[in-house]
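Supplementary Note 2. Why include the ligand at all?

Several targets in our set were suspected to adopt different conformations when bound, so apo predictions alone were not considered sufficient. For every target with a known small-molecule partner we therefore ran a joint prediction. The input for shikimate-3-phosphate is given below.
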Amino acid sequence: MTRIILIGYMGAGKTTVGKALSKELGIIFYDLDWYIESRMRKSVSQIFAERGEEGFRKIEYNMLHEVAEFENVIISCGGGTPCFFDNMDYLNQQGQVVYLKADPEVLYKHLLMAKVERPLLKNKTPEELITFIREQLEKREPFYSKARYTLDVNLLDNYEKIKISVAKIRELLNI
Ligand code: S3P
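The joint prediction is reproduced in token form.
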């Protein structure tokens, strides 16, 4: 049974790498945010607006416990998922967790280009955004670093680099 779980900060490329890995291995891919949105019939932004971050984290916890029971899947989590409740220990228990690690400057660049709306980042000036990423990443790192595997994705920008990351994950997990 295969269950690969990708974690990392917003903009690290969890969804992109997850999809590419899924295509290559022929294993179904679940993005936790998309799963939440389809189960709740609401966008993540709407959930944040209506229930606040606390409400979102409870829903995220419940949905994580559904998705992470599925077998033969690749799952990409939200950037905050590992940092609430006992989620990180649960993830390690449920699957092979890979932390996609990137520097704040790289995440910042990706997030500036991102089309997806992210409630935690909205209405921030570029200066506020880079400061926020640096500070939050420092707080989250102790959770992320509990992952069994870490992959440096600072170079993850174009198609070739995504392919290389997929190959590296296969090497790490021996699959
Ligand atoms: C969040 C990351 C988002 C989403 C929500 C909160 C976070 O997912 O779950 O907006 O706390 O880092 P992505 O990492 O897929 O953007």
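The longest strand covers residues 96-101. The helical segments are 14-25, 32-40, 44-67, 87-94, 104-113, 126-144, 159-173. Comparable summaries for the other entries are listed in the accompanying table.
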